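Q: Could you fold this chain for me?
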Amino acid sequence: MEIQRTFSGTAWETKAGYCRALRVGSQIYVSGTAPITEEGSVYAPGDAYAQTQFCIAKIQKALQSLGADLPNVVRIRLFVTDINRTEDYIKATQEAFGEHPPTNTLVGINALVDPQMLVEIEADAICLE
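A: Sure. Below is the predicted structure, expressed as structure tokens.
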């Protein structure tokens, strides 16, 4: 069985030695996706809603490059540094997944690799075709 990999082009993928997502058969696994632009800066510092939207868009692009899309996502895990902004994270995920909500875990953590980052998201998807 072939393993397909995709990269988003951020420096962290090269520096830390990982791919953005990979597909094995019908399963897709998306690495922890943070609000880091291709230029290496943090997107929308201090804005939990915008950072969550950005991460989901980055996940969607990775999924599409592997033949899937957001409705194929079966599980997301959000790691957040400010649990008091839960409504912002929820609003962004509800808007993105709409009628196809995945299972979801939201975990409050002390920090991410950059103090301006408020969220990092992992995702798993299944392609039935």
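A (continued): The two ends are 16 Å apart (CA to CA).
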